[in-house]
Protein 1
Amino acid sequence: EALGLEQWDSEEAERAVRSAPDEAFTHETLATVLTDRNRFDEAANAILESIRLENTRASAFAVLARIRRHQHRWTQCLEASEKGLLLDPDATECAHFRALALRGLGRTREAENVLREALARSPENPRIHANLGWSLLTTGFADDSLAHFREALRLQPELEWARQGIVEGLKARNPIYGLMLRYSLWIGRQ
């Protein structure tokens, strides 16, 4: 998104790879575009080629983690995000996906800790706020989650994930609904 890739189509990205096949960045760009188009298997092939060419870019591991997250391959998502964080401990996207993977693996408290550390480094990141909101909502802290969803929306008003969190957080204030929501989120991880 920061690269303006939302306007690219996969043909343009594939042309970029053909024109510079030995450049890791072109494969990473293709992987990002394919991920945005929900073509996850092809995206995984492209990002793995990028990493094969140059395995020192935290951003490439963040793209791989993002793909694995969409595929619900939580262990692989965690591994990719942790490799990215080894390369750059301040890689916010890697921290974001690490927390998603931890939550997907049922390690919600660890996910909260990762997100709080990421917020300390990047307090203006709306996705980190939304992610922490969902983690708090999962563990039954609806009121605390709402503060993070609101902050995410203040920072990025069109962030649909945070909007959904606000709705669920407000509903979760009802004890019965809150219990059903936590059960539903738990079942979703299984």
Protein 2
Amino acid sequence: ILPPESYVRKLLPDSFIFYRPKDIVSGDFYWLGEADDRVFFAAVDCTGHGVPGAFMSIVGYNQLKQAIITTKGGTPAEILDHLNIGVSETLHQKDENSTSKDGMDVAICSLNHKTRELEYAGAFNPLYLLRKGEIIQTKGDKFPIGSFLDGETPCFTNHKIQLEEGDLLYIFSDGYADQFGGPKGKKFMYKRFRDHLLTLKGEEMPTQKKSLNTAFEQWRGSLEQIDDVLVIGMHIS
């Protein structure tokens, strides 16, 4: 279900995708689409990993495809709203007797390459914008895809950002920051992740990907990888 490398290069020419499943199949996946002069890209983290996570990935992928058609290339928030309903209906989470707690955390963006206008919406997972040596964080809503609050479907918040030449964008799952390692066997944590991203300013996208992999390996050491890992980086030129 993952888009081929040629399609990624076509839609996001100056980017990288650092994708490292814990098992042969994964609960993390990346998704791309296009509509009305805009490119859509998403980092999705489904409940679980391995085979259960992979089944959820298929549900999420199919619902994302359907959402972009249903909304006719709507805002990222509208796509997440449709994804939320679609996933919940597929898993019968609206049924009174349902015990399904499966869901997904998502960061999704749409980008107009000509105007450099970015829109973002998130289910937990944030967007990092690295500009002039500083990381600006736009937070997602604090509920996942597949959630109902008091029986009602919550709506996601849409954020608009005017990008500038030289900006760097990052969306990701929690697998990188949650990895245990280091001298005391602690989590990598988001602060250390942000600090590492700051050191990548000015580096080409393939070099950034390689650096993220090296830092992850050095931190993990001899410990087991605990979750799927996904980081998408993009340079605005």
